[in-house]
Amino acid sequence: MRNVSRLNYFAIFANTLDESQKRLHSAPVDRGAFTLPALGAIVLATVFASESLTRPEPKHERVHVTYWEKWTNFEFDAMKHVVDEFNKSQDKIQVDLVSMSQIENKTLMAISGRIPPDLAGLYGQNVSQYADENAVMPLDEMCAEAGIKKESYIPVFWNINVVHGHIYSLPTTPASTALHYNRKMFRDAGLDPDKPPQTIEEFDDDIQKLTKMDAKGHIQQAGFIPSEPGWWNWCWGAFFGGKMMDDKGRLTLNSPENIKGFEWIQSFSKKFGADNIQSFKTGMGNFDSPQNGFMSELVASELQGVWMYNFVTKYNPKMDWAVAPFPHPKDRPDLANGTVVDLDVICIPTGAKHPKEAFEFLKYLQSQKGMEMLCLGQKKLSPLLQVSPDFYSKHPNKFIKLFTELAKSKNTLYPPKMGIWAQYNDEISAAYDSISLMHKTPKQALDDVVAHMQPALDSYNERLRLRGIK
Amino acid sequence: MTRNTGPGAKREARAGFVFASPWLIGFCIFLAYPLLASIYFSFCDYSVLKPPVYVGLDNYKELMGDELFWKTLSNTFSYAAIALPLGMLTSLILAMLLNTKVKGMPLFRTLFFIPSLVPQVSLACLWLWVFNGEHGVLNTLLLKFGIEGPNWLGNPAWSKPALVVMAVWGGGNAMLIYLASLQDVPTSLLEAADLDGASGWQKTLNVTLPMISPVMLFNLVMGIIGSLQVFTVPYIMFPNGTPERSTYFYTSYLFDNAFRFHKMGYASAMGWIMFLMILALTYGSLRLSSKHVHYQGG
């Protein structure tokens, strides 16, 4: 009985197992019932895991300051280094640096859309236009509290930031310009490379010797081309003592000094041929390329800025070159050491979410340590009057002291502070074309600019007056 | 066909609007509102950064006295006056050639269409080198025939023709539309013309061109709109409209006013003037063409 019942149990168990196996094989398995919850669980687990990994501890939460900067490449890297050092130096503020093309347009749109960055790296020439529109915050009070004062800066690099008596931006990196020349080409032309031209008249003689033409009269090598690189078409009259605007706000571009400057520009077309110069120039590549006229040793001398060192080192490190102050007219020794200056600036747009925190970074940047870190990184001069003892010894550009001295000279050339500078500059560039193509005399071309721009300036000033800005 | 007016009709209409809502919302926000707002802004002193101030017709009056406005308008119309007819003619001739029965035709059609696929920015960079006065491909080729080419990009007399050449080179879209319509010309009509002893030229003039005239009108209208709004290529190739503003076009001046000079009200007024000019030209083309355009079946 016992055995029988044991057998029965076994048979029942075997049957049950067999049935369940049959059911398992015959009934379709609802995989979705398993996979969906499983996937959901994975997603949730991932979200929680990433949250817990990325979310900072509440007690260390930093205020994020958004900073848009126009630079790319080595210039951006230098600022990134300063930003990283600032972020490391404290635990309250995190500056997020973003490289932004066409920064002036994008900042404008962001301000009007009320979503501006906390910091914007604009060009010095934008400051007036943005200040007129109240698009950037005045920094007077914050500067006073932080001890940032005019006396610490090379005067021109402070003044560029001041509009209607208020400071609207602070310097990032400054630049001054000088005559860059190829010593080998000077030697080959029988000139002494250690005695660069002092006056425009000497320079004219040197240019004649340095310029080589082929049998057909085509330029093969140029001593100097005023339109290369062509970034400061407004400056030529200023080198002859011309001003672009008087103290009463009247445009003076057609003054005798300015006309003289542009007559000098036209003299190149008269001597070498306008078409000839243009054809020669189109044979050169972009500025930032090995085909650059100066770096490919097609042009013996050029008006260039402190940044040129970076590009010569990159594209033609073996080139034997030097820098000297741009020549002045012989009868105007008072205009010696004339230099076009330029400044990249940083400002806090109106409507920025974290102006105080943004200014904390500005304070760090404007310190001698911050500024030297940036300027050494970009291999430029410092806008501050005081530099550390090893700033010059560490600086790879052996002409850096000359650029600094030029920036301190009384003959610094900078565009007038006016909200419609972009328009005025466009007009001057169009006049420059007419002059160099010999389609107009310098007087005609400059008279036309003043006739067109003076009413535009008057109407602009009137609009400012109506808004109570001026 | 009966119209559905039952209880489901409303639900269906609602569902239709819901499905179309992404486009409708986008259209209202990104097109309809800016379009209508720009009418108002054209009567305002508006810098984008400050609230607009109503100034009546001041912007329009100022434009009438603005030398640069007339200069850019003249540049644009003189460019369009050459680029449009030349482009239409070239596309038509190419389409006719590509409609013939020649071995390897698909390859030829592809080759002639490819230039229209090149993005505008790449096109500008490419042609900067083609037109280079010193080392350009075009001048090198011309030199082989003993012709010393001009400095295309630096000479005001040659800068606009250079842009016209580029526009003609990229006219593959118009060519494709012509080609499609040429293939639609009824062979029965061409055969009838053959039986009547018509020559090839007579067949083209009296059969083919009238039959494709609606497409020619379409290309004309699109060409007017496109050539008067020329912007990207000259903006890249000729900064500030150099040389001597010979390539400073209407849309470039409009863009500069809006985004560089912060004169959005002035730019809006320019935009509306251009809109009205294009509208008038399109209307004029449609009216003038009513006698010359033949629609099949009507």
Structural description of this entry:
- The complex is a heterodimer of chains A (470) and B (298).
- Chain A has helices at 2-26, 32-54, 73-89, 103-112, 127-132, 140-146, 155-159, 183-188, 200-210, 235-238, 256-272, 274-282, 308-315, 355-366, 368-378, 391-394, 400-408, 421-436, 442-466; strands at residues 63-69, 93-99, 119-123, 162-163, 166-167, 170-182, 212-213, 219-224, 299-305, 321-324, 339-347, 412-413.
- Chain A has 470 residues and is α/β, with parallel strands linked by helices.
- Chain A folds into two domains: 59-175 and 342-413, D-Maltodextrin-Binding Protein, domain 2; 176-340 and 418-466, D-Maltodextrin-Binding Protein, domain 2 (3-Layer(aba) Sandwich).
- In chain A, strands 1, 2, 3, 6, 7, 8, 9, 10, 11 and 12 form a ten-stranded mixed β-sheet that branches. Chain A has a two-stranded antiparallel ribbon with strand order 4-5.
- In chain A, α18 packs antiparallel against α19.
- By secondary structure, chain B is mainly α.
- Chain B has two domains: 6-35, no CATH class; 65-289, Orthogonal Bundle (MetI-like fold), CATH 1.10.3720.10.
- Chain B has 13 helices and two strands.
- Chain B has helices at 7-41, 58-64, 67-97, 105-113, 120-130, 137-144, 156-169, 172-182, 187-195, 200-228, 232-237, 250-260, 264-289, and strands at 44-45, 53-54.
- The A-B interface holds A 104-105, 108-109, 111-112, 129, 133-135, 275, 278-283, 350, 420, 422-423, 426, 429-430, 433-434, 437, 439, 452, 459, 463, 466-467 and B 45, 47-50, 53, 62, 67-68, 132-136, 151, 153-156, 240-245, 256, 259-262.
